[in-house]
Amino acid sequence: MSEGTLYDTVWDAHRVTTLPNGQDQLFVGLHLIHEVTSPQAFSMLNERGMEVARPDLTLGTVDHIVPTDDRSRPYADDAAEEMMQALEANAEDAGIDLLDPTTGNQGIVHVVGPEQGLTQPGKTIVCGDSHTATHGAFGALAFGIGTSQIRDVLATGTIAMDKKAVRKVEVTGELGVAVTAKDVILEIIRRLGTDGGVGYVYEYAGEAIEALDMAGRMSLCNMSIEGGARAGYVNPDETTYEWLKTTEYFTENPDEFDRLRPYWESIRSNADAEYDDVITIDGGELEPVVTWGTTPEQGVGITEPIPKPTALQEDKQARARDAQTHIGVEPGETMEGYAVDVAFLGSCTNARLPDIRRAARVVEGKHVHEDVRALVVPGSQRVSAAAEAEGLRDVFVNAGFEWREPGCSMCLAMNDDQLVGDEVCASSSNRNFVGRQGSSSGRTVLMNPSMVAGAAITGEVTDVRDLSTDDDTVGSQPGVSA
Ligand SMILES: CC(C)[C@H](C(=O)O)[C@@H](O)C(=O)O
Ligand code: SF4
User: Fold this and answer.
1) Where in the sequence is the domain holding 402, given as residue range(s)?
2) What ligand has the least distance to the C-alpha of 433?
3) For tag attachment on the chain, is the N or C end more exposed, with fewer CB atoms within 10 Å?
4) Is residue 131 lining ligand 2, measured as CB closer than 6 Å?
């Protein structure tokens, strides 16, 4: 078993006891809740007449069902209004802060926690949402949990969990122009498969990871779960501390920053830490990755041919054939030139300010292709306001994009933002499952945000390196705090 890793150290620091069934009971430092997965857990608690143990360590937001256009109440969709009301009532009763749209701080749960400065190194963070691993970007242990676990955390402020093995995923070298954290994680999943991480937590390390800004680290950790890992994290460093320092939590509590910093330093994996597995990828060799299929592992470099199903592992061949039929691609072709109908720049993977900046650089002075419907859905109200203040909203709107209010939107289509019929979407989100974007015949091609911007402009999957000669510098800071 691993030893001396951040995972081991933070786990031990939070262990309350080992339970008779062998699981460890961990103290939970931050519990994030949203409208889809929390109502049932609150009902279970209410049925037993129990109270929320740590409302002070719980934070709510609304993201999945919230409309991204007209947000006047009641919401046009009754189911959405009902979920929102349940969340409001539960938060109010328990005394939990709720980042609703009137606060100016609303957004996707995995965008707002870090923005608020509540996602911190060495914390245990849970949320009833599979992409909770995002918060691992800060060196937190962050896990997605199910409804009965949400209930348990609400009731006790702790959670029972099995300890996993740790795989170090080392990405060496320097990423090329237009190659981003999204491409790195799509490449990792392509190589190891969507179940390659089962039983593991991933520690991302190496020069290419250390060079990523916090937005990039969040994109990377966000998709750990798509690779089957229980969680993913990056050891905290100066980049992490710089982000934290500018958040409201720490500008309001500067002493806290000085008090916590030694702890943050102390939890970093030791130089001689032992891992259960190590894999190394040469980051310098990567190019932008896009998916050709219906799982995130079915990806390919933008200039590479789509594989023949028979070239894949035997148990993956049938699924690959079905996927190629659904998407309508042939092995041997590249994805370049594949026509798109919709461009979606959004989701907790890629809707932070640096993502929007990168995409804006591609879009500036150009126009969305006449056959394409293009949307920017910022990850949070803060991201949106910061982007607007920098003039980025104008760049997109002038180019023919719709600029929407924050939420999950077309990432999973629980609101009105949906594909129609067999539309193809160039999407900066994290899942390309059949039906994911609201239409069972709809087709999703996952890619990084500037590639989405490129597809919006040309009307087809495009190697964005051919569109922009710029380097990849967009500023390392979020620019969305305080
Ligand atoms: C609705 C929620 C339970 C779900 C998740 O857990 O991931 C959603 O966020 C998703 O991305 O599919
Ligand atoms: S943006 Fe997508 S992946 Fe992220 S929480 Fe919302 S639905 Fe889930």
Assistant:
1) 290-466
2) 1
3) N
4) yes
